[in-house]
Amino acid sequence: MNVKTHWDKIYSKHSFDQLASFQPSHKLSLELIETSGLSKNIKIIDIGGGDAIFAELLLDKGYTDITILELSDEAIKKAKARLGDKANSIKWIQGNVLDFSAFEEYDFWHDRAAFHFLTKFEDIQKYKKVVQDSLKQKGKIMLATFSELGPEECSGLPVTQYSESNLMKLFAPELHMIRWQYYDHVTPGKIKQNYIYSCFSKPV
Ligand SMILES: C[S@@+](CC[C@H](N)C(=O)[O-])C[C@H]1O[C@@H](n2cnc3c(N)ncnc32)[C@H](O)[C@@H]1O
User: Fold this and answer.
1) Which atom of ligand 1 is nearest to the CA of 16?
2) For residue 30, which of 49, 52, 109, 130 sits 20 to 30 Å off, Cα-Cα?
3) CA 100 to centroid of ligand 1, rounded, Å
4) Which CATH number goes with the domain that contains 177?
């Protein structure tokens, strides 16, 4: 089964608040955006945004230029139905981040729990290239991935685990790591999953 079919199946069987990644507040992601000193009209892209409520929280906070890039049609269909009219304030792109060719440059790239599903070296390198090509100068990227203390697989797929040093090495020298933090996410099934939230900046 290809990865898209896999995620479509997951979204057709489960509601957004039943997925292991479900988070009602997206507190750390919002904090990282709010403290980055960027205005409310920055261009934000959320990779693998799925049917998560992150984009809705951004809209509620007054951010006006939000794009969701998501592999699963099913996730996009469900998110649009849940959001109603608010969905029209978001730009939706269905596709694989590895094939993404941005037609605008972003100030803030957000990826919570999508990047860690890339396990092949060449795919990880491709992702890095897509990020570099999509970010404005001084743009920022925030990744939330499983840490080395986190799960080895999720939603039936293997993942890559990260530490601050391997993330720093991976994105250097093109991107500078400016912040990181470990975080225990508690799934709807009350299981702890350790994440590392990291933030990078693209130098001028
Ligand atoms: C675990 S969910 C996380 C959803 C959301 N970001 C959150 O924080 O709850 C992973 C999401 O990434 C999407 N995804 C996985 N691989 C992808 C890829 N290569 N390109 C774009 N989206 C992808 C999946 O369809 C799914 O919606």
Assistant:
1) 9
2) 130
3) 14
4) 3.40.50.150
